[in-house]
Specification:
This protein is of the alpha/beta class and about 180 residues long. The protein has helices at about 15-25, 45-65, 75-80, 90-110, 130-140, 150-160; strands spanning about 5-10, 30-40, 65-70, 115-120, 145. The termini are far apart. The structure holds iron/sulfur cluster. Iron/sulfur cluster binds next to helix 4.
Length: about 180
Amino acid sequence: MNRTRLVLVSCCAPCSSGAIEQLAKGDIPDVDDFIVLFYNPNIFPESEYKKRLDEQIKYCDSLGVKYAVLEYDHDAWRDAVRGLEAEPERGARCGICFAYRFKRAVQFAQDNGYNAIACVLGVSRHKDQSQVDMAAQSVCGDIKYLPIKWDDNLRLQINRETDFYRQNYCGCEFSIRKKQ
Ligand code: SF4
């Protein structure tokens, strides 16, 4: 029987808290091993990227969970979404952004002996889960994509009880909400 070794693609600590706790407790059937992957070259500016990364690392360390951090190649990400700067959130730019990050996650999985991917990129109410799932499936190849429905109540409870740094925009410069 094939063991499931999962890469959990994460954007930040508040979105991933519940999923990480479910996985760490063994609450997701058939997942034998997992690692949290932080690959978010979409985040701008770099100071914001560092805040989200620090918070992600702090949370993984608090649970004794493995994590990996990949390169912050924001200029290459900008090239990938060129021409789509004016798209709204959930529009075409987001589909490209998700696929860009999943593609690198698949490469990470292949290089490191993992055979499945799941993510928390769709848990925010601002996101379209089906768009996230489609982007992942379009690049997964021989790596299995698991569209796990995480426990929202658990995530919200952890987030109420934990003093996470919380951002008020998705990540890229085009998603920064203007103050009214
Ligand atoms: S709004 Fe979020 S998902 Fe969409 S392109 Fe920007 S960072 Fe990526």
